[in-house]
Amino acid sequence: MKQLTIISGKGGTGKTTITAAFASLAENAVLADCDVDAPDLHLILKPDIKETVEFSGLKIAAIDKEKCIDCGKCTDYCRFEAIDEDFNVVNERCEGCGVCEYVCPFNAIHLVDRKSGFAYLSETRFGPMSHAVLNTAEEASGKLITLVRNNARVLANKSNKDLIIIDGPPGIGCPVISAISGVNLVLIVTEPTLSGIHDMERILGVASHFKVPAVVCINKFDINPGNTRLIEKYCAENGLDVVGRIPYDETATMAMIQEMTVVEFSENEFSNNVKKIWENINYYTGKCSENVTINGDY
Fold this sequence. Notes:
By secondary structure, the protein is α/β, with parallel strands linked by helices. It contains eleven helices and nine strands.
């Protein structure tokens, strides 16, 4: 089983559009949406949810009113003002640090699981899908991404699939690290803008640090041919392959409105370029070893 993650240094570069298109082109794959803070792959793939699992990422303080004598030590030591004057826990402020539990002289406070989101096992018209959503303002997205990836592996083993296609989160932080660690290949989607080039360089640094092979595709390459040449020059100088270029086109927007992938929606230059990129990706994943270094329980 091999794993491919589509990432970008920031949101809005078209990685979900490309992930969905790959889903419709793959013949034996499981789909995983690891952008748990703002998932949107489901808008195109319209998954039929088969199983829902509640996710608890962090802990939260809980006060046993029968044991509490209102001594006030918990409020004195709490640096987040997470316990009000009536000795109730303010959920939005509690960081689950455990100081209140430590200082309570009557053992009236304990940390309990905090409901942080949900993970889903689903079926789509292109195959099984693992996805999730983190509740508003909740943390521990990296742990939820790990759960999504583990669920994807379970689905792949159950359904005898040989590839997991992962829609990664934007940025370069912990969620991205969770989404790319141990995969066989990352496809970095970039745009020919100065910020796009900067973000591409940052995300390449992350992939390089974790020794994950990377290739690049340039979306909207024709909006600034000069910057496109800069990206290609940078990739050539750093031993990176550019697996494709996609022109600016409204096909992606029109397809998303119709809840379809670009490959399903239209047979034009845009979708043909995506198909060529997919062929190149198959070539590179074919060269990748399945015996990759695993970081974490993936």
